[in-house]
Amino acid sequence: MTGALRKLRDALARREITARAAVEASLAAIARRDPALCAFLTVSAETARAAADALDARKDIVGPLHGVPVAIKDLADTAGIRTTYGSMLYRDHVPETDDAVVDRLKRAGAIVVGKTMTPEFGFGAVCVNDLAGPTRNPFDPALTSGGSSGGSAVAVAAGMVTLAHGTDFGGSVRTPASFCGVTALRPTPGRLANPARALGWDMLATAGFIAGSVDDLALALEAAAGPDPRDPLSLRDFPSAAASARAPRIAWTENFGVAPVARAVRAPFRAAVAKLDAEFGARAAHPDCTRAIETFHALRPPLIRQAYLRHYKTHGDELTRTVRWWIERGAETKAADWLAAEAERTALYRRFLAFFDEWDVLVAPAASVLPWPNDVGDVTEIDGKALPTLIDYLAVTFLVSLVGCPVVVVPAGLAANGLPVGIQLIGAPGKDAVLLALAARIEEACGFRRIEPP
């Protein structure tokens, strides 16, 4: 299915519309819709107009995203455009250079129209910070858009842009996409190079994209992917998208055997699996994930402490409660615990690799719960059962982050209360292009398309 992003790109490439016209249309949509939704922290109107005029003055087509307006999550540096990381500490910060993924998008011809909402440093279940928010779900403004790329998901869902950048640590592009009825991609870590990452070999977090279709996600990844020698994880090859003509071998799991998932999610997920089974055949199966939750809990807090301890020491009283909680929790991990968790993670990775020798795609819910009210900051229970920590509701997504699989999220219908529900299509590490090709087949055959807000 040809996506809205590709249609816009093609019209721009044929000079049927100007880059300035595309930017003005995006800015007008932001002006109309964002006051009620708060998807953007900063709108870079004049910078975008200048970039569009420069493109229109050229005789050549700059790249595969020539003239396309894009939104960038406010965790990524943008040269000359305010970048706050969702924190009061950086409320007036204007970087001099672009993050690598932003630079790649701009080199491909994309035009940044603004920075989307994120909780402080990307840590929070609701997309709100001390600068602005909350970012409201377009299906019900009283409900959350999801953390932490909620601003990007809403910008796409409400038609303000056709492509938005996001980041994903434990599910931060996948959960908002599910909540807002759009598609998302968490690529294999290293597919989108990140030479600024302090811990070069850490692969729990990666940039990703939110768009309206699988086709659009593939276009965005092709435009921005590529190696960088400063990033030791960056991938130097981009495998062919050619996939077997046979029906994909699809396995599915409601919870990986360990993750809490609400009954309200299980019902529409089973309906989606029934469609997959009718079209391609699908069987219940998943790798052994017995200690995966404990492994993630051991690895994530020290990473957050290492990254933000300096802020805690100098401005701890100005940080949000969630960020302080993570930094303090990181002090509890001993070196022996860290190494044991890395060993368990390695074993889990190898079990996933063996699993994908037999299966092409593993399907799971994209979120364990449905959107909840914005004034409820955290998910503390599911179906009346208390959760051990603030992030256990993300287990259905953070288990996949542990092993670095590429994931495409597609909308799979509506829950009983009329809210969107997405599913994760999970592929083998490194096989992003093959996964995207299979996801496009699944999207078309099963009708798993973007769901328009009322």
Write a structural description.
The longest helix has 24 residues, at 292-315. The chain has 454 residues and is α+β, with helices and mostly antiparallel strands. It has helices spanning 4-13, 19-37, 45-56, 100-107, 150-157, 174-180, 214-224, 263-279, 292-315, 321-330, 335-358, 395-403, 432-446; strands at 40-43, 69-73, 111-116, 136-137, 140-144, 163-168, 183-186, 206-211, 250-252, 282-284, 361-365, 381-382, 385-386, 407-414, 420-426. Helix content is 38%, strand content 15%.
What is the fold's blueprint, element by element?
Elements: H1 4-13, H2 19-37, E1 40-43, H3 45-56, E2 69-73, H4 100-107, E3 111-116, E4 136-137, E5 140-144, H5 150-157, E6 163-168, H6 174-180, E7 183-186, E8 206-211, H7 214-224, E9 250-252, H8 263-279, E10 282-284, H9 292-315, H10 321-330, H11 335-358, E11 361-365, E12 381-382, E13 385-386, H12 395-403, E14 407-414, E15 420-426, H13 432-446
Characterize this entry briefly.
This protein has 13 helices and 15 strands. The chain has 454 residues and is an alpha+beta fold. Helix 2 (19-37) runs antiparallel to helix 3 (45-56) and helix 5 runs parallel beside helix 6.
Return Rg in Å: 20 Å
Q: Number of helical runs?
A: 13
* Overall geometric form: globular
Q: Give the neighbour order of strands across the main sheet.
A: 6-8-7-14-15-11-9-10
Report the sheet-strand fraction.
5-15%
Write down the secondary-structure element order.
HHEHEHEEEHEHEEHEHEHHHEEEHEEH
Mean pLDDT: 96
Helicity level, as a percent range?
25-40%
Major pleated sheet: 8 strands, mixed
Unreliable spans are none
Number of strands: 15
Derived from helix and strand composition plus strand pairing, the structural class reads alpha+beta
End-to-end CA span: 23 Å
